[in-house]
Amino acid sequence: MGKGYIFGLGFFDSVHIGHQNIIDTILKIAKDNDLIPGIITFDDDFYSLLNNPEKNIYLSYEREKLFHHYGINKVITLKSSKILSLDAKSFFEKLLNDYNVKHIVVGEDFRFGKDQKDASFLEKKCSERGIKLNILPLLSINGRKIASTTLRTYLKNGDIKTVTNLLNRYFSINGLVVTGRQEGRNNKLNTANITINDKKTIPQSGVYVTVSELEGHIYKSVTHIGKIPTYNIDSFVIETHIFNFNLDIYNKNLKLYFVDRIRDVKAFENKSGLYNQIYKDIHFANEIKINEKYII
């Protein structure tokens, strides 16, 4: 049968420091027992199929990249529509039939199957089948347990510094650069507008210090999220000014890392007021030190 697997099970929506603790545990046990470290997770339809209105903090392809970055060899993304139709017992048996599972690691809040069985049920099934199991307690900061729900709240409130602390990296979004208003060209403030997957959670509307990654190169930037009331634009936009950059990047993928929040979206009396504020935003952003180890 070859080498056995040690799997972490869960959605791991944000791959926060609690999830990273699970990954670290998997890697240590895998090394000590000559097992293949793996993660079993679910696709981007997971929340909607559970009638949960929340959006994903990270999409499945983003989480897969993060898992590999943190050292996981095998990432299996299951189709939520199929897996959520199984009860917990059937899911467990399918897992053992499909893979040579020797060890499982989950958090204490783990639930699985359409009957939403908990970690104690998993412990019973593992004991019956001779599978080792680690159930890890949730981590806490300032007395508050770390969970994706908590992190999502901070994102929606624009508390980027707390999000960074919970992730131990900068939160990021990816999108395709599309044609925007091109209004900033007259003021040497070219911007890149991006569109993103509508299943992705984004920070609260506002102006942010960001880092832009384009084709492997890193640039400092400022990003506006939300409406543009000065121009009576009611549609939602994600618009980024990349410092010292003037290349055509339409139809290219742009990744934005959120470093700090500068201010709320404001309506200015005229364009001059808006651009004066943007120059202040750029000055503020230039004063912020970027931690390169958080660019993941």
CA radius of gyration is 22 Å
**Which consecutive residue ranges, at least 5 long each, have pLDDT under 50?**
none
Count of all domains: 2
Mean pLDDT: 94
Quickly count the helices.
9
Taking the sheet with the most strands, its summary is: 6 strands, antiparallel, barrel
Q: What is the succession of H and E elements?
A: EHEHHEHHEEEHEEEHHEEEEEEH
Would you give the CATH topology of the largest domain? Rossmann fold
CATH class of the largest domain: Alpha Beta
Distance between the termini: 35 Å
The CATH superfamily label of the largest domain reads HUPs
Topology record:
Blueprint lengths: L4 E5 L7 H17 L2 E7 L3 H4 L10 H10 L4 E5 L1 H4 L4 H11 L2 E7 L3 E2 L4 E2 H11 L2 E5 L3 E2 L2 E2 L2 H9 L3 H8 L3 E8 L13 E4 L10 E9 L2 E12 L4 E10 L10 E11 L7 H17 L9
Parallel strand pairs: 1-2, 1-4, 2-3, 4-7
Antiparallel strand pairs: 5-6, 8-9, 10-11, 10-15, 11-14, 12-13, 12-15, 13-14
